Every structure is written in C-alpha cells, then in structure tokens.
Amino acid sequence: MSLLDDFMVRAILAGLGLVIAAAPLGCFVVWRRMAYFGDATAHAAILGVALALAFNVSIFAGVLVVALIMALAVSSLNGRGFAMDTLLGVMAHSSLAFGLVAVSFVHGVRVDLMAYLFGDILAVGRGDLAIIWVGAALVSGLLYWRWSALLTATLNPDLAMASGISPKREQLILSLALALVVAVAIKVVGTLLIAAMLLIPAAAARPFARTPERMAVIAMVIGGIAIFGGIEGAFAFDTPTGPTIVCVAALLFTLANLVRVLRAHPAR
Questions:
Q1: Distance from C-alpha of 180 to C-alpha of 68, rounded to nearest angstrom
Q2: What is the C-alpha separation between 61 and 67, in angstroms, rounded?
C-alpha cells in the first residue's frame, strides 16, 4: 500500500504545497497592502469554475484563466485615478455573484458549491496533488527568480526605475503568481479562504522577522503549523477542514501579536 493512498497524508501534502507558494507571495501582499487585491482575484475563481463546467474543461484551467484576467485587470487599473479600495470591493463581490449565478445555469452537472467556496482538502486525489505541487514549484521558481527585483519595486519604486527595473512589470509578475496560487488553492481551502491563507501567515510572521527573506521563511513555518493543526483539529472535533485551518492560522496571528506587545512592554 502506497503512502499516498492515505487521504490524511494527501491532505497534509496538499496543504504544505499551498503554503510553500502562498507564504512568500503573502509577504508581498502584506508589504504592498494588497489584501483586497488577493480577495478580488480569489472571488473571481467561482466564475472560472462555472465557465470550466460549461465548456467541459478542467476546473484548474478555468480558474487560472479567470483569476489571471481579474489580476491583470486590477493591475492595469491601478494608479489611473480609480479609488482602488472601492473598485476592488465592487470587482470582488460582483465576480463572486456572477460566478454563483453562472453555476446555477450549468445543467447536467452536480456542483458542490461548498467545496469550491470553503475547500475540500480531504478529497484531494493524486492528480490534484500533482497540480498543487507543480503550481507551487512554478510560483516558488518565479518568486526566486524575481525576488530582488520584486523587493526593490515594492520597497522603493523610484530606486527600482533608476536601476532599470519596471515596477509595472513586477506588478504583472505578482499578478501571475497570485492567479496561479488561487487556481492551486481552490481545492484546498476554497475561494473564500484563499485570501486568508495568503495574508494571515505573512502577517503573523512580521513581528519575528528582521529581513524580508526571514519573514518569508517564518510565514511558511506558520502556514505549515496551521495546516497540521487545522487538519488534526478538524479530524478531532468534526469541523470543516478549510475553515479550521484558517482558524488555527488566526490563533497563531493573535499569539504572534501578543508576543510582540509583551516584547514592546515588558513587565517591570
């Protein structure tokens, strides 16, 4: 019997694959204050699910295409006089609504919306696992290749331009990576929780990191703990696995900030 025949092993491996891709990318989401950007891209994934079912193509391909279109659209509108928080809110919720309506028009296919909204990590198969790890490898490779340029463009766009680095190009690279993570993560935590897994481990790592690279590594560790703790907690308490993973991540974020406060104000 292969180790991958155990659904718990597959679930843990799927979660770790997601964390490897999402944690470093989430650091850029935190540094650039792009939380709503990730939300809008994730919510668009449901529309991708509906289109994939309608045209009988893979869910991964449908979600990837729609998430990429949304990410590129938001990137192109950024800095053109739009109130971005309002625009992102409108795009996030309208794309989710259109996706849910579109799914209702798909006939002859039984659609488990709860699985796409909140994830079904325990149902991950070998094929899903391969897609998740290939996607994680692509995102990790992309971030490793562009790390220095992405960091410079994030921290100081003027210095980036003076160094021959295009902030707009780096923004598009981040958009591509974000779309890939959304497409990979939909099976694990679902569209409503993808943004949380991008944001929370990175935000929890921030108080402990003195360098960007260390923050990315700590975020991966925190994300991995959330995966293990969430799966074990869901199994022990019979709760939904995706939301339980995010709950554990939120508890770790709370603990990290409590430690930060105690460090800043030590007891006398």
A1: 8
A2: 10
